[in-house]
Amino acid sequence: MNAITIGSTGAVGRDLLTVLAADSDYERVDVLVRRLPKLPQEHAEKFHVHIIDFEQPEAWQHFVQGDVLFSSLGTSKKRAGGKQPQWRVDHDYQLAVAKAARENGVPQMVVISSVGADPKSSFFYLRLKGEIEKDLQTLGFPALTILRPPSLIRHPTKRLTETLSVKVLQALNAIGLLKHMKPMKTLDVAKAMARLAKERTQGTNIVSGQDILFHR
Predict the structure, then answer these.
(1) Pairing of strands 28-33, 47-51
(2) What residues have CB less than 8 Å from 78, skipping those under 6 apart?
(3) How far apart are CA 150 and CA 32, in angstroms?
(4) What is the pTM of this model?
(5) pLDDT averaged over the chain?
(6) Per-residue pLDDT averaged across 151-157, rounded?
(7) Is pLDDT above 70 for 76?
(8) Which DSSP category does 46 fall into?
(9) Residue 182 pLDDT more than 90?
(10) Is 59 exposed, middle or buried (0-12, 13-18, 19+ CB in 10 A)?
(11) Rounded to an integer, what distance in angstroms lies between the CA atom of residue 178 and that of residue 201?
(12) CA–CA gap between residue 121 and residue 128 (Å, rounded)
């Protein structure tokens, strides 16, 4: 299989590169990034890195060719500098690459969303994730897999609020509460992405919460 990835400098994206490097079913991986990622040393020859400007699709859309597009692209409101810049990254950039994939005949996309994604949500982040899910479904991928993980355990992380939320959920899980929201490792999510792509489930397939772990 030939894969394309976006979001490869993030926690899930970095782990996905490691998973793809070790998986012999993936023979070539085109990595579209805004800055150079840290590539796995193992089987490094299968990676083809393209430093791109997402706002100039005419310069990169010809790279978006293969059997599956993986997207773990996303940022935080703080890192982006506000809601509008975050929307541009999480929604507009992601949708632009997905459109290029469909135009080039890529039959499958696997994308990271979030538990609670809903285009009608009153919470900005969940509404954002719901909108991109909805818009990706209009593109007509023969196979579209949407993963909705709960809180993620990233190593290392400098986000204080993220660290605290994971610890709170883990404490509640320990007394039997919110088991469906149990935090999971980014590596487990990455493994599930690679496995689900090979399953080639037709139509839109939404895998949410702890169900993700069954596919790692």
Answers:
(1) parallel
(2) none
(3) 26
(4) 0.88
(5) 89
(6) 72
(7) yes
(8) G
(9) no
(10) exposed
(11) 29
(12) 9
